[in-house]
Amino acid sequence: MNATTYLAYDFPLASAFLTMLWFFLWILWIILLFRVVVDIFRDDEMGGWAKAGWLVFCIVLPFLGVFVYVIARGKDMGRREKAQARAQQEAFDSYIRDTAGTKGTASSVDELARLSEIRARGDITDEEYRRAKEMVLTGHGTAAHSGAAPGAAGSTPTSGR
Question: pLDDT per residue over 139-158, tens digit each?
Fold first, then answer.
Protein backbone atom coordinates (compact mmCIF):
# COMPACT_ATOMS: atom_id res chain seq x y z
CA MET A 1 0.00 0.00 0.00
CA ASN A 2 1.18 3.37 -0.94
CA ALA A 3 0.07 5.89 1.67
CA THR A 4 0.48 9.48 0.65
CA THR A 5 1.30 12.03 3.29
CA TYR A 6 -0.21 15.44 2.98
CA LEU A 7 1.93 18.37 3.96
CA ALA A 8 0.86 21.94 4.44
CA TYR A 9 2.43 22.81 1.10
CA ASP A 10 0.02 20.48 -0.64
CA PHE A 11 -2.78 22.90 0.21
CA PRO A 12 -2.35 26.39 -1.28
CA LEU A 13 -4.24 28.18 1.50
CA ALA A 14 -2.17 26.53 4.25
CA SER A 15 1.00 27.36 2.33
CA ALA A 16 0.01 31.03 2.16
CA PHE A 17 -0.82 31.01 5.88
CA LEU A 18 2.56 29.52 6.82
CA THR A 19 4.37 32.02 4.60
CA MET A 20 2.58 34.92 6.28
CA LEU A 21 3.30 33.46 9.72
CA TRP A 22 7.04 33.18 9.04
CA PHE A 23 7.11 36.67 7.55
CA PHE A 24 5.31 38.06 10.62
CA LEU A 25 7.73 36.31 13.00
CA TRP A 26 10.70 37.65 11.03
CA ILE A 27 9.36 41.23 11.23
CA LEU A 28 8.66 40.75 14.95
CA TRP A 29 12.24 39.63 15.54
CA ILE A 30 13.63 42.62 13.58
CA ILE A 31 11.56 45.01 15.72
CA LEU A 32 12.76 43.28 18.89
CA LEU A 33 16.38 43.54 17.72
CA PHE A 34 16.06 47.30 17.17
CA ARG A 35 14.35 47.79 20.54
CA VAL A 36 17.17 45.93 22.27
CA VAL A 37 19.80 48.02 20.50
CA VAL A 38 17.98 51.25 21.43
CA ASP A 39 17.67 50.06 25.03
CA ILE A 40 21.39 49.30 25.18
CA PHE A 41 22.16 52.91 24.27
CA ARG A 42 19.36 54.33 26.47
CA ASP A 43 20.57 52.70 29.70
CA ASP A 44 22.47 55.29 31.74
CA GLU A 45 23.46 52.83 34.46
CA MET A 46 25.44 50.60 32.09
CA GLY A 47 29.04 51.56 31.35
CA GLY A 48 30.58 51.95 27.93
CA TRP A 49 32.31 48.57 27.90
CA ALA A 50 29.13 46.78 28.97
CA LYS A 51 27.20 48.54 26.20
CA ALA A 52 29.87 47.57 23.67
CA GLY A 53 29.81 43.96 24.90
CA TRP A 54 26.03 43.65 24.64
CA LEU A 55 26.05 45.32 21.23
CA VAL A 56 28.75 42.97 19.88
CA PHE A 57 26.87 39.99 21.36
CA CYS A 58 23.64 41.11 19.63
CA ILE A 59 25.40 41.68 16.30
CA VAL A 60 27.62 38.55 16.21
CA LEU A 61 24.98 36.14 17.54
CA PRO A 62 21.74 38.04 16.88
CA PHE A 63 19.16 35.44 17.93
CA LEU A 64 21.02 34.32 21.02
CA GLY A 65 22.11 37.88 21.92
CA VAL A 66 18.59 39.31 21.72
CA PHE A 67 17.03 36.47 23.68
CA VAL A 68 19.70 36.56 26.41
CA TYR A 69 19.35 40.35 26.69
CA VAL A 70 15.56 40.12 26.98
CA ILE A 71 15.85 37.42 29.64
CA ALA A 72 18.60 39.18 31.61
CA ARG A 73 17.46 42.79 31.33
CA GLY A 74 13.87 42.64 30.06
CA LYS A 75 12.24 43.90 33.27
CA ASP A 76 14.49 46.96 33.42
CA MET A 77 13.89 47.52 29.70
CA GLY A 78 10.20 48.18 30.38
CA ARG A 79 10.99 50.47 33.31
CA ARG A 80 13.36 52.56 31.20
CA GLU A 81 10.76 52.88 28.46
CA LYS A 82 8.10 53.95 30.98
CA ALA A 83 10.47 56.53 32.49
CA GLN A 84 11.26 57.95 29.06
CA ALA A 85 7.58 58.14 28.12
CA ARG A 86 6.79 59.86 31.44
CA ALA A 87 9.62 62.37 30.93
CA GLN A 88 8.42 63.14 27.39
CA GLN A 89 4.84 63.64 28.63
CA GLU A 90 6.00 65.95 31.42
CA ALA A 91 8.11 67.98 29.00
CA PHE A 92 5.16 68.26 26.61
CA ASP A 93 2.80 69.30 29.44
CA SER A 94 5.31 71.87 30.65
CA TYR A 95 5.68 73.26 27.14
CA ILE A 96 1.90 73.55 26.77
CA ARG A 97 1.58 75.26 30.17
CA ASP A 98 4.37 77.71 29.37
CA THR A 99 3.02 78.48 25.92
CA ALA A 100 -0.55 78.95 27.06
CA GLY A 101 0.43 80.94 30.14
CA THR A 102 2.58 83.55 28.38
CA LYS A 103 -0.38 85.45 27.07
CA GLY A 104 -0.65 88.32 29.52
CA THR A 105 -3.12 90.44 27.58
CA ALA A 106 -6.72 90.70 28.64
CA SER A 107 -9.40 89.63 26.23
CA SER A 108 -11.75 92.13 24.62
CA VAL A 109 -14.61 90.82 26.77
CA ASP A 110 -12.64 91.69 29.91
CA GLU A 111 -11.82 95.13 28.51
CA LEU A 112 -15.49 95.82 27.67
CA ALA A 113 -16.58 94.71 31.15
CA ARG A 114 -14.00 97.02 32.71
CA LEU A 115 -15.16 99.90 30.49
CA SER A 116 -18.78 99.31 31.52
CA GLU A 117 -17.80 99.46 35.18
CA ILE A 118 -15.88 102.71 34.66
CA ARG A 119 -18.81 104.25 32.82
CA ALA A 120 -21.26 103.04 35.51
CA ARG A 121 -19.14 104.75 38.17
CA GLY A 122 -19.30 107.95 36.14
CA ASP A 123 -15.55 108.24 35.54
CA ILE A 124 -16.00 108.52 31.76
CA THR A 125 -18.73 109.99 29.57
CA ASP A 126 -20.86 108.07 27.10
CA GLU A 127 -18.86 109.53 24.21
CA GLU A 128 -15.55 108.40 25.74
CA TYR A 129 -17.06 104.97 26.38
CA ARG A 130 -18.16 104.71 22.74
CA ARG A 131 -14.68 105.64 21.42
CA ALA A 132 -12.94 103.27 23.84
CA LYS A 133 -15.33 100.48 22.90
CA GLU A 134 -14.54 101.01 19.21
CA MET A 135 -10.83 100.84 19.99
CA VAL A 136 -11.24 97.57 21.88
CA LEU A 137 -13.43 95.98 19.22
CA THR A 138 -11.14 96.97 16.35
CA GLY A 139 -8.06 95.79 18.26
CA HIS A 140 -6.20 99.12 18.27
CA GLY A 141 -5.14 98.88 21.88
CA THR A 142 -6.49 98.62 25.36
CA ALA A 143 -9.08 101.14 26.32
CA ALA A 144 -8.68 101.79 30.01
CA HIS A 145 -5.85 101.25 32.39
CA SER A 146 -6.39 101.77 36.10
CA GLY A 147 -9.44 103.97 35.70
CA ALA A 148 -7.92 106.58 33.34
CA ALA A 149 -10.11 108.11 30.70
CA PRO A 150 -9.51 106.43 27.35
CA GLY A 151 -9.98 109.56 25.30
CA ALA A 152 -7.20 111.47 27.02
CA ALA A 153 -4.21 110.06 25.16
CA GLY A 154 -5.54 110.53 21.64
CA SER A 155 -8.96 109.39 20.76
CA THR A 156 -8.58 108.86 17.03
CA PRO A 157 -7.73 105.26 16.22
CA THR A 158 -5.12 104.73 13.53
CA SER A 159 -5.86 102.55 10.55
CA GLY A 160 -2.58 100.65 10.35
CA ARG A 161 -4.18 97.22 9.98
Answer: 775 544 444 444 444 444 44
Rounded-to-integer distance, Cα 130 and Cα 106, Å: 19
Q: How many CA atoms lie within 13 A of 96 on its CB side?
A: 6
Separation of alpha carbons 90 and 94, rounded Å: 6
> How many other C-beta atoms are found inside a 10 Å radius of the C-beta of residue 43?
16
* pLDDT average, residue stretch 9-16: 75
H-type alpha helices, 43-143: 48-60, 62-101, 108-121, 126-138
Dist. CA 36–CA 58, nearest whole Å: 8
Residue 112 near residue 81 (C-beta atoms within 8 A): no
Question: Could you tell me which of 72, 16, 15 has the C-alpha nearest to residue 46?
Answer: 72
In eight-state DSSP terms, residue 88 is H
pTM: 0.48
Q: Give the contacts of 58 (CB within 8 A, at least 6 positions apart).
A: 33, 36, 37, 40, 65, 66, 69
